[in-house]
Amino acid sequence: MLEDDSGRIQLVGGVLKSVILVTGCIIAVLGIEKADGELDVIDLKFPDLAPQPGRWELSSPDTKNGSKSTKRETKVKEEDVEMTDSRSAGSGGKIAIVSGLEFSGVDTSYAMELDLLLEYLLGESLDPATQKELSHISRLIIAGNSVAPDRKSQVEDAVEKTTQKKYGYDSSAYNALPAQLLDDFLSELLPTMPVTLLPGVLDPANSSFPQQPIHSAMFSKARSFTAVPGSAEPGWFDPVTNPWEGEVEGWRLLGTGGQNVEDMARYVDSDDRLGMMEAMCRWRCSAPTAPDTLCEFYAQTGPPLVSLCLPGSLTRHFAGAYPFQDDEPFVMMECPHLYFVGCQPEFGTKIIQGTEGQTVRLIAVPSFSATGEIVLVDSETLDVTKVKISVAS
Fold it and tell me: Which SS3 state, helix, strand or coil, does residue 83 take?
């Protein structure tokens, strides 16, 4: 179905079977109108990749007339010359990306993997050569689902239903352990590397999309590493929004906690997550299905709560997207150099190119709780390495 301000028309034709389309896509269509009012599509066109800024462009200070500083341009050019040699060797620093840690107050089946992950990031395990390589990790990005909701057993749930509770739930059943475990994990890492934390569908953040950062009050230890209010200097602990766009090592990064791809996969007859990510980049929209079907969250049955740390049976609800009147946060006005999506069923990566020389590295980051995998990105070449952490049986 194609819709604009003049009306709607049904699209038909074999061309539609060769492309990925979901609600919210902006496309131009060439076709022939049939007698029954349908449009037989001959060809269609997407916006394709947005204009891509150069590396370090966000960091370059502006002069009073709005042009870039010549001194900074010279410095960047000199750095680019030095980077040419290091790129060929792939000897740059590393950006670590992990998702789906799912710290739980009940399930401890993979607690050893989380401990090994912490030792791996701190460089306290493996051989000296690997420890030297890990010492070059310049930042850790956690892409969603850092905590897991507690789920009671069927026996406990049956007993709970027979218990009389005020307003339908027992506030004393709140379990703060998942957040405390995540806080301990972050506080161990933060003295050695900066951490960027994106919320996910299971995290204690607002359910509507885009999600706001997890409040620093949740982290009694890690919040001491956040930026000082009013200071221009960034902190080492950086809770950000989902989706998040920022600059790391001069590269423009765009990342999400995975809800946009998960929702799109429900309506596309394909398991190609990287193809869906590429389609979003070429549509210039990071969440095309919002607010129609995207923004779902899980809450306890009973009162309208979004307290994901409360145990009990969970049901799925839809919350919609936050309305913006003067801005559209999901539209890609500028093309990122690196686009990652967290909490995916398996690892994947590819490079896509645009018609104007744009180059984007796509990364599907697997859920650590399911796969035990973490992704390392070379900060000079954007080459990707997958590392699997597991406990020998």
Answer: helix
